[in-house]
Design goal:
54% of the residues lie in helices and 14% in strands. The protein is an alpha/beta fold and 333 residues long. The protein has three domains: 98 residues, Helix Hairpins (Orthogonal Bundle), CATH 1.10.287; 118 residues, Rossmann fold (3-Layer(aba) Sandwich); 75 residues, 2-Layer Sandwich (Alpha-Beta Plaits).
């Protein structure tokens, strides 16, 4: 509630209280009669005086109540109408603008759920300057998502209509991250039907739901509880390795970075081997792994590995080294 509306209501209530007290003291009216007299005076409804003809002091008090009460009532009514009109018109204008902005998106990420997991995922996506559309049925979380720079839609993410409004058919990635496994299953099934080529990275609250999400069409499934337990074990047994991975993947100030590059149909490395292209010497970046479209990943690939369309390279190096690697692979910076 804006301050001017709150102030108007305070003055109006104060006028009612003071006016009632005045009629009690001046005209010796009962409390209910005095309050009734104050209300009909402020609203000017035209009813007769309570308890007979008012005294001169009572009439003077009535005039004061009319002036103060009418002024407070009119001011409060005007500010209230202005506030609600601005909310109604401004809200619709904002919704239209949001709809138009989302309709212009392509290759973006649709994030379903803005709880602890969803918000953490969004913060990481924001560091990569990714365009993200958040869907959540909690207005407070929608406000939070908007404040942090996301496109946001309030509603049920299990609804096909809401997924289409988020541009799921044009999106590159969908992240079902709501708190219910059953809802994540429905979202995954719906999104896979609406966009068969979309990459779906789903959250599983319970470990036993992981297999079901894969069957529903998810490409990757993350169970935060399982991942958290594995991380604790890694920190306990291999703290230096865990710290190195955190630095490389999470910290933006670290010199080395990890990047995923796709081998496109027009790439110059198709049909060539790692030995032929000598990517390590030419770029300075190290190729950690190569994955094929079927999902098989070869770690520390052989120099005789021959590149093919659709394969994925995982490289590590400095930003200049990765820029050179992108150019050699044929990926635009």
């Amino acid at each position: 509630m804006p301050g001017n509306l709150r102030a108007g209501l305070v003055v109006l209530v104060a006028t009612l209280v003071i006016g009632t007290a005045g009629f009690v003291g001046i005209e010796d009216l009962a409390l209910l009669d005095a309050f009734y007299m104050t209300v009909i005076t402020i609203t000017t409804v035209g009813f007769g005086e309570i308890g007979g003809t008012l005294s001169t002091a009572g009439r003077m008090w009535t005039i004061l109540v009319i002036v103060a009460g009418m002024g407070a009532a009119l001011y409060t009514a005007f500010v209230g109408l202005e506030y609600f009109a601005e909310n109604a018109i401004g809200g619709k204008r904002h919704q239209r603008r949001m709809k138009k902005n989302i309709e212009e998106l392509s290759g973006h990420i649709v994030l379903c759920g803005f709880g602890r997991v969803g918000e953490t995922a969004f913060e990481s996506l924001l560091r990569e300057d990714a365009a993200v559309v958040v869907i959540d049925n909690d207005p407070a979380k929608i406000d939070l998502a908007l404040a942090t720079g996301a496109y946001a839609l309030e509603g049920d993410a299990t609804s096909d209509e809401k997924l289409l409004a988020a541009g799921v058919e044009r999106a590159k990635v969908l992240i079902p991250a709501v708190a219910s496994d059953s809802d994540n299953l429905v979202i995954t099934l719906s999104a896979r039907a609406l966009n068969p080529s979309i990459l779906i990275v789903a959250r599983a609250v319970n470990a036993e739901t992981v297999k079901k999400l894969y069957l529903a069409g998810a490409d990757r499934v993350v169970a935060p509880q399982v991942v958290g337990g594995e991380r604790i074990a890694t920190l306990a047994l291999k703290p230096n390795l865990a710290e190195f991975i955190d630095f490389v993947i999470r910290e933006r100030t670290v010199e080395f970075q990890v990047e995923e590059l796709s081998v496109e149909p027009d790439s110059a490395i198709i049909g060539k081997s790692l030995r032929d292209r000598d990517l390590r010497r030419q770029s300075g970046a190290l190729v950690l792994a190569i994955g094929d479209p079927a999902g098989t990943v070869s770690l520390n690939p052989s120099p005789d590995h021959v590149f093919a369309n659709g394969q994925i390279l995982i490289g590590i190096g400095t930003e200049p080294q990765l820029t050179t690697l992108r150019r050699l692979v044929g990926v635009e910076s």
